[in-house]
Specification:
36% of the residues lie in helices and 22% in strands. The protein is α/β, with parallel strands linked by helices and 683 residues long.
């Protein structure tokens, strides 16, 4: 009944709309100037990953002759045409917004200059910097019969140079821009504030010194984006770690999918690069300005400009945990719910640290998906093993773009004496759980931590997530079964509290939606509020459409991709979709079911996507404490009332910006204040 192409939105175009919402933050004049610049960088980084994974995948389908259509009736080739149109508009706005920001930065005495515009003193300083710092690490590469075109790694910045000498035909050279050197160089001795020049502009200005005897005819900056999706034979990999490491080396030399070049009226070098990379003209983006604006991160974090950034927010320690020397005593007394980044992630780190030195702790079991580069949790796990605890870590070495970091940590954990499992063949382990087994006077007690986000103390300062500590015996039993399932051949016949994908999460979600349909039919007002990052699973969307038609009120808060179309007559009239994009990254997955007046609330590691529900190990767990239920529902209500950072989707998939004429409700600011209030901070 609902399975028609017009009832769904294309995944890739929905993602581009999300990145457009991110970019709009850069054009918000109420935001501190350098924070606006940060959103320019985030947009660019997002777009890189989109090309490396999503566009690359579509191109592979076209090259393989696959004409399969998606749920909206589009083939891969048709999607690429639509993507090209949307991306060019997005990139155009990105550089337009960047131009405005750079102009405003001049009012704050921050300048971006080209080499020719520097003062005499500045040029003298730059002469010295070039010859003593830049020149020694430059490696000009001639391109001729004896020197084939070099392998240029994914997203590396390079210069292409056209040269001539006498009557010879034009020669070509490539200069890789050295990545160890800073892209933005601050030039002292300028009359006007802080002045920066780009490394590539410096090399361009001085490149005649690299080619003595030749005339430099043209120089362009370029960057190639390659297919970076890892092709791992998940079922046949006898050694998953070896398979991942082999695929990582392939990522650097994947097929080219995008060429960014500096805009030029000349075509010789451009045509040469098109040929050598086998790039079509529609995959070329000519840029006026910085290629790869991530170089501006140095300027964003430049000292002395605190007034141009957000006032730092200090994540709070809940008042119930302040001065609490033993976390196990606190957890045994009551479940503890943390809301990050409003509340500190440090209790989670402390949970593992205390376990590592506690004489009563016998074993620690934990999943790791993405961890920080200097992970306190990983160090504590290693210390625990050295202290004689039995430590088992399931570390997902296929976590995209964190593979190398995870492999490094996995090996260090093994060296410390931990038992390390490198994921599960055929499934990514995305569920977040830590289990502490402790010998106490009354016998063995299990302490469990579960969350919606990663065990990463760095991203926990920026990502909105929730996590739960509990000593509930039923959840403890489920936790043991969960790790036994991951580590061996055990398949529990039933679970007490938690729900696990891929074995039961999809079925349970449909049961919970069906339950709301029954309450609506009985006149008890079926109601669902679901917050997540992405909503793509067709099976679940069809169930939501059914619920909408049966009178269930459905309020969705979906940060990114959403294939569901709200407000379609006879299909989704009772469904609303909104997306919150603000200072922090909305990352938690929270699901509320009215349940006829006795609400059920669940937290989960899983988005509602096929990969999460069918191809990953995920967790869904209940919030049962009445005070916590009230608190989480109130948090959801604050998000639903947001009219500053919340965009509403119409039935065409377009997003309406917040109406700023009404009384301001910024959910993230409200939750900052709520966390301070709960922690006893005087406001």
């Amino acid at each position: 009944m609902f399975d028609n192409e017009e009832n769904f939105l294309n995944r890739e175009l929905s993602w581009l709309k999300f990145n457009e919402r991110v970019l709009n933050e850069a054009n918000d004049l109420s935001k501190p100037l350098l924070e606006r610049l940060r959103f320019i960088v985030i947009t660019s980084s997002n777009l890189d990953e989109f090309f490396m994974i999503r566009v690359a995948g579509l191109k592979s389908q076209v090259e393989s002759g696959i004409t399969r259509k998606d749920d909206t009736g589009l083939t891969a080739a048709q999607q690429l045409i639509l993507i090209d149109h949307k991306v060019r508009k997005l990139v155009g706005n990105q550089y337009r917004f960047l131009g405005k920001i750079i102009s405003h930065m001049q009012n704050e005495n921050i300048y971006f200059s080209n080499v020719e515009s520097l003062s005499i003193a500045g040029r003298q300083w730059l002469d010295d910097y070039f010859y003593n710092t830049i020149y020694p690490v430059l490696t000009p590469l001639a391109i001729n019969a004896s020197h084939p075109f070099p392998l240029l790694t994914n997203r590396s910045l390079n210069l292409a140079v056209s040269l001539s000498r006498g009557l010879e035909d034009s020669q070509i050279a490539i200069i890789p821009v050295p990545s160890p050197l800073p892209r933005m160089i601050e030039v002292p001795n300028q009359a006007k504030g802080n002045t920066f020049v780009s490394l590539e502009d410096v090399i361009t200005s001085y490149c005649t010194y690299l080619f003595c005897g030749y005339l430099v005819k043209e120089v362009i900056t370029f960057r190639i984006t390659r297919n970076a999706d890892l092709l791992i034979d998940g079922e046949g990999a006898e050694d998953l770690l070896v398979e991942v490491e082999k695929s990582l080396s392939q990522r650097k030399r994947g097929e080219a999918v995008r060429l960014e070049i500096s805009k030029s009226s000349k075509t010789f070098l451009k045509n040469f690069l098109l040929t050598v990379f086998h790039i079509a003209k529609q995959d070329v983006y000519e840029i006026t300005g910085f290629i790869d604006v991530s170089c501006l991160m140095k300027v964003i974090d430049f000292t002395g400009y605190d007034h141009l950034r957000y006032k730092p927010f200090v994540p709070q320690i809940p008042i119930g945990l302040k001065n609490q020397e033993n976390l196990f005593d606190a957890i045994r007394e009551n479940d503890i719910l943390l809301h990050h980044p409003y509340e500190s992630f440090s209790p989670v780190v402390e949970f593992i640290r205390q376990a590592s030195v506690d004489l009563k702790v016998l074993a620690i079991k934990q999943t790791l998906y993405r961890v920080s580069g200097n992970s306190s949790i990983v160090r504590a796990l290693g210390q625990a093993a050295e202290n004689g605890k039995q430590v088992t870590v399931v570390i997902e070495v296929r976590a995209r773009f964190d593979e190398e970091n995870n492999i490094l940590w996995a090996r260090r954990l093994e060296e410390a004496g931990c038992h390390v499992i490198y994921g599960v063949v055929g499934l990514k382990v995305h569920g977040k759980m830590a289990l502490i087994i402790r010998q106490e006077e009354g016998g063995i007690r299990r302490y469990v931590h579960m969350g919606t986000g990663n065990y990463n103390d760095m991203t926990a300062r920026l990502y909105c997530d929730m996590s739960l500590f509990t000593a509930n015996e039923q959840i403890g039993a489920d936790a043991s079964n969960f790790f036994n399932m991951l580590l061996g051949y055990s398949q529990p016949s039933s679970w007490e509290k938690i729900v696990v994908a891929p074995v039961g999460l999809r079925r349970r979600l449909k049961e919970l939606i069906e339950n709301e349909i029954k309450f609506a039919a009985a006149g008890k007002g079926g109601h669902i509020i679901a917050k997540m990052n992405s909503l793509l699973d067709k099976d679940i969307i069809l169930k939501l459409y059914e619920a909408s038609c049966k009178g269930v009120k459905i309020e969705l808060i979906v940060r990114g991709i959403c294939s569901l179309r709200p407000g379609i007559k006879g299909v989704s009239e009772n469904i609303t979709v909104r997306s919150i994009v603000g200072r922090f990254l909305e990352h938690h997955r929270i699901i509320y079911f009215a349940n006829g007046g006795t609400p059920n609330i669940y937290l989960s590691s899983a988005d509602w996507m096929k990969r999460n529900l069918s191809e990953r190990v995920e967790l869904l767990f209940p919030i049962e404490d009445q005070e916590m239920l009230t608190r989480v529902k109130a948090i959801l209500q604050i998000m639903l009332k947001d009219n500053r950072k919340s965009y509403s989707m119409d039935n065409d998939g377009n997003y309406k910006a917040p109406d700023k004429r009404s009384k301001a409700v910024n959910s993230q600011e409200e939750l900052c204040r709520e966390a301070e209030s709960r922690a006893g901070v005087l406001l």
